[in-house]
Design goal:
The complex is a heterodimer of chains A (249) and B (644). With 249 residues, chain A is α+β, with helices and mostly antiparallel strands. Chain A contains eight helices and seven strands; from the N terminus they run E-E-H-E-E-E-E-E-H-H-H-H-H-H-H. In chain A, helix 2 (117-124) packs antiparallel against helix 6. The chains are: A alpha+beta (249), B alpha+beta (644).
Chain lengths: 249, 644
């Protein structure tokens, strides 16, 4: 396959940035999208041009490090991570536009690399059960109905890639935040801090500059792990019941 | 130097309890006066950083990824072992210990492995308390499954994403300590060197991957939780960024490197599709619980299959060779990883491989779907099947999967004693970065167990014992050793940037990987290893004269990052070959063709090789010195492993 690539190039956070067009020749259908970029980068290096920078690590769809806004969609045309997207999803002669995640809370670092540390700070605000190592009960002393455990697992599958933010016209982080709030609100282990967790995580999310949720469902449609927006509904319930009977003294 | 493993005396089951009691304690009010550096935030690193911060130490945690949650532990699929015996099927701490020692082909320490089995039960408790959503039965209790190399069901799991859930648990504990101000996080920061003062580890030199700033950090102890070195093979199931740099540079500062040739080749990975391939994807070993491994009975049928004249489903039952079930009737498809991998290689070498390259075997779920219904199989393995389909474009519910072995884990690593301390006092290695508990072969679902055992339950005691013997005064970052190490790192970076040759970094990495895979991979020979050594030396020379790294240090420069790592892989590769050449026996993942039983199984030489081979760095261009730690077996009898 021969493809035309329009790639966002930006030297650093201060640079204005812009699109540069490249031609990718001899692309095999079995290549992953990132392997196609690897080949392009080797060619650029040999020509003495700075390779395109992009985030990636596990390349098996679980670490959440890869991003890329491909032809107007986070992670491209399939509901998967960019590293799991293969070139068989594209056709010969196609023009592909590649941009970084666009959100105020995810500033561009270089080219297609953005800073997602805002997500870490949301988790730091309360995305945990406050137990120290040791001194916990035997695992089977906390029975959990299978249906509840399965629902918690559905939410816990979030990989923190940020596609939900990139997909949202308001750059809202509700799907990400609600996935963690839901997981812990569903499980008995999360009950003690249930209210404070919802309040603090939502407050941090707002402080980071993410937008509001207007229920368009774009996040769910683009989430590579299929995290459901019912989690957002659950987080809203958690949040509102927390603020009316706050534990935050 | 004589290597002292510091295994406590006394009966096996009492060693750890006694050792904990004999360890010195740091007064609670004094803990805040000690600083600890943790490099790497995977299961071992995140659990150690969180647990030490909870105790009151000041922790600095470093990772090269943009967030600690991305460490490659996240990709572990199958599960985590623990001797809970919830299934009432005969499991016990002793059985887990025994299985692990035997599975490791008797090349691990009894004391360490017993401790691992002992603390395994607490790991599950800890994770559940954190809210890790393990799989459950309808009665609400935890579910288990069986895994390769074991005849009991002791594996806890969270769908096919157990590593992810355990890591997110440890990451949540770590995040809580960041919020408490006890852990300072340094993401996108890579360790470039270790600072040793008067023989003790006192800090590290790092490079900020965004700005390129080379900085120093001082501490009373340094913990390397930096994972394994499987990427020396270029193609492996490791993440793209997984590297040996931190461990290797510590090695060059005095930490011995043990059993580097012990690498694990995982039997169930998606086969290579072409030259562009950047990494290999593992399909969880748990698939072998229900999938049956086979190839056509004859070369002729395999030939037709490869040419696309017939499909897998056209092949009749009597024309299929379920080679693992045939050769190993009692373990069948659940034989340990090294045995399964080697047998896949054998049948492919015989010309019975099933894909275009001839390097693949089938993993077939037809019978399991018939027996249990598609719905049940979907529940167990749905995400794995989806992943397979995404990568290969084929539907494993309809057609058997194709799999082939790939490099997955490295049992070798920095030598550590019972306290997880390396040969440099104050420098520790945890998780896959150390060499310890898995011997010559790791059993499935044991890596997660070891990472978390080291971080949650071992290091908090052993590092305390060391710190209690140090004065609670700040480590002086103005000591000239810090400046010197920093300068050397800067010079090393400059040296790479100045070469300005003609070949990209991956050119060298791929070449190295091919040498390692062909000559130091699933099967090794003396002549092949000797060739490999010469080839690596030549490649290293070419790298230092002809690699092309564009850009500067003072920016995000992913090519420079890669070049630094590949430079270290080139040196490590040579040591792996030396180690494989030295070990004139076959054991676990190390299979020397000269040493095998008449029916092709690994033939150990316990009389001459029941030791840990620890290598001491002697300087640039010099052969490393071999230092042996003899293994003492007081409880298990060394036998030929048999899974027949």
């Amino acid at each position: 396959m021969k493809l035309t690539l329009k790639i966002w190039r930006q030297k650093n956070a201060a640079d204005k940035g812009g699109f540069v067009t490249y031609v990718a020749d001899h692309v095999s259908k079995d290549m992953s999208f990132l392997e196609m970029l690897d080949v392009l980068n080797d060619q650029l290096t040999e020509k003495g041009e700075d390779p395109v920078h992009f985030d990636h690590d596990c390349r098996e769809g679980i670490c959440g490090m890869c991003s890329l806004y491909i032809n107007g969609k986070p992670h491209g045309p399939l509901q998967t991570t960019t590293c799991q997207l293969h070139m068989r999803s594209f056709s010969d002669g196609e023009t592909i536009t590649i941009e970084p995640w666009r959100a105020k809370a995810f500033p561009v670092v270089k080219d297609l690399v953005v800073n997602r540390s805002a997500f870490d700070r949301i988790i730091q605000a309360g995305g945990y059960v406050s137990v120290n190592t040791g001194g916990v009960p035997d695992a089977n002393e906390i029975p959990i109905p299978k249906t509840v455990a399965d629902l918690a697992m559905d939410a816990a599958q979030c990989i923190g890639c940020g596609a939900c933010v990139a997909a949202c016209k308001n750059a809202s982080a509700m799907l990400f935040t609600s996935a963690k709030v839901s997981q812990l609100a569903l499980l008995p282990q999360g009950q003690v801090e249930r209210k404070t967790r919802a309040e603090k995580m939502v407050a941090q999310m707002d402080a980071e500059g993410f937008g509001a949720c207007t229920n368009t469902g774009a996040c769910e449609a683009e989430c590579p792990k299929g995290i459901s927006i019912t989690n957002i509904a659950r987080m809203n319930r958690e949040y509102f019941s927390a603020v009316v009977s706050s534990d935050n003294m | 130097m004589i290597l002292d493993s510091k295994i406590p005396a006394g009966p096996l089951a009492e060693k750890w309890t006694k050792h904990k009691f004999n360890s010195k304690l740091v007064n609670p009010a004094n803990k805040r006066k000690y600083d600890v550096i943790v490099v790497g935030t995977g299961l071992a690193g995140a659990s150690a950083a969180a647990s030490l911060a909870e105790l009151g130490y000041n922790v600095k945690a470093f990772c090269f990824q943009d967030s600690p949650r991305r460490a490659h532990s996240i990709a572990a699929q199958g599960g985590i072992n623990a001797a809970k015996n919830y299934q009432n099927d005969g499991d016990s701490i002793y059985r887990l210990f025994y299985d692990t020692i035997k599975g490791g082909d008797y090349r691990a320490r009894e004391g360490n492995v017993y401790r691992l089995a002992e603390v395994s039960v607490k790991i599950i408790d800890q994770c559940v308390a954190q809210g890790v959503p393990f799989a459950r039965e309808y009665g609400g209790l935890l579910a288990n499954r069986s895994f390769g190399g074991a005849q009991v069901s002791r594996t806890f799991y969270a769908r096919g994403q157990t590593g992810q859930q355990l890591l997110l648990g440890a990451y949540s504990a770590l995040s809580r300590q960041v919020a408490n101000g006890k852990v300072k996080l340094f993401p996108r920061t890579e360790m470039m060197d270790l600072v040793v003062i008067d023989g003790q580890a006192k800090g590290i030199v790092t490079r900020n991957l965004i700005t390129g700033a080379v900085e120093t950090h001082a501490a009373h102890a340094v913990l390397l939780c930096t994972g394994g070195y499987g990427n020396v093979f270029f193609l492996s199931t490791n993440a793209m960024g997984s590297n040996v740099t931190a461990a290797w540079r510590a090695h060059k500062r005095g930490a011995y490197f043990a059993n580097p040739c012990f690498t694990q080749i995982h039997p169930t990975c998606i086969p290579v599709s072409g030259d562009h391939q950047s990494k290999l994807t593992l399909m969880s070993e748990s698939l072998r619980n229900d999938g049956r491994v086979w190839v056509p009975a004859t070369q002729e049928i395999a030939e037709k299959l490869r040419k696309g004249q017939i499909k897998a489903n056209d092949i009749k039952e009597e024309e299929r060779d379920y080679f693992l079930e045939r050769k190993y009737p009692s373990f069948g498809n659940l034989v340990p990883r090294d045995v399964a991998s080697r047998n896949a290689k054998y049948v492919c070498d015989e010309g019975r491989g099933v894909n275009e390259t001839g390097e693949a075997v089938f993993l077939d779920f037809r019978d399991a779907i018939k027996r249990d219904t598609r719905k049940i199989i979907e529940q167990k393995y749905g995400n794995l099947f989806d992943m397979y389909k995404q990568i290969t474009g084929e539907d494993p519910y309809e057609m058997p999967m194709m799999i082939y072995p790939a490099v997955h884990y490295t049992m070798g690593g920095l030598w550590v004693d019972y306290n997880l301390m390396t040969t440099v006092p104050g420098l520790y290695a945890l998780g896959e970065a150390n060499f310890s508990e898995h011997g010559a072969n790791r059993l499935g679902a044991s890596a997660l167990m070891q990472g978390l055992a080291d971080g949650y339950f071992v290091i908090p005691y052993t590092v305390g014992d060391y710190l209690a013997q140090l004065a609670p005064t700040k480590v002086d970052e103005n000591h000239p050793e810090f400046a010197r190490a920093k300068e050397e790192v800067k010079q090393g970076i400059e040296r790479i940037l100045k070469i300005n040759g003609t070949k990209p970094v991956d050119y060298f990495h791929k070449k190295l990987g091919k040498i390692m895979w062909d000559k130091c991979g699933m099967a090794r020979t003396e002549s092949g290893l000797k060739e490999a050594k010469a080839e690596i030396q030549a490649l290293k020379k070419e790298f230092w004269s002809n690699v092309k790294v564009l850009g500067t240090n003072e920016e995000l420069n992913q090519t420079l990052e890669k070049a630094n790592r590949v430079a270290d892989f080139l040196e490590l590769g040579e040591l792996m070959v030396d180690d494989a050449l030295n070990r004139n026996e076959s054991c676990g993942g190390h299979f020397r063709e000269e040493y095998q039983t008449p029916d092709g199984e690994a033939l150990r030489d316990d009389e001459n090789y029941a030791y840990v081979a620890a290598w001491k760095y002697l300087g640039e261009g010099k052969e490393e010195e071999l230092v042996k730690e003899e293994l003492v077996f007081e409880n298990v009898k060394l036998t030929q492993r048999s899974y027949k």
